[in-house]
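Worked example 2:
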Amino acid sequence: MGKVIDLTGQQFGRLTVIKRVENDKYDRTQWLCKCDCGHNIITKSYYLRSGDTQSCGCLKKELVSKRFYIHGHTINHDSSNTYETWSHMIQRCNNPNNKRYKDYGGRGIKVCEKWTKFEGFLQDMGKRPEVMTLDRVDNDGDYCKENCKWSTRKEQQRNTRKNRLITINGITKCIAEWCDFFQKPYYKVQQRIKKYNWTPEEALELVPRRKKNG
């Protein structure tokens, strides 16, 4: 075995070598080091000189944390609502294993190139307002700045493919909006139209129900 080079007092990353300690079970030289954060560790000459060990472990934790922290929006259990909204959008459109993929990516809904990175999405949409969700103006259109807005859940629920649009006097609204407008119970009106085949005007009681002949 060659002569051991004394590393006492030398700095390796955040570690300062304090003294040599007992060799490990394989007779490899070990050193007691103090980290800049205040913790002590014992490590081997090779790891210090190769750069494999540069701290007590705090550096790795910081790097991992930094990698998962983007513009104040984390992706761990403390993740922001804005980041979660972006992440769910990406999953719905790009991940065939996502349970909602068939309604988004599966039918051709895409995320614009700029929004494939969270920074681009944040720049265009800003932080998600409280009690708001990401909504597409054109339900068949892609996710991009021109086709997206923050909406309340009630507004978004009315902008779905399942909603039936009804035109009365040249004005088109979904059933829920007409019910609000005429102050009619939504469930009752919807049942009249879908189950009993009433016309929208009949269901909303704008005209009398026509009796069937025979």
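The chain has three domains: 11-64, 82-157, 165-203. Residues 165-203 form one domain.
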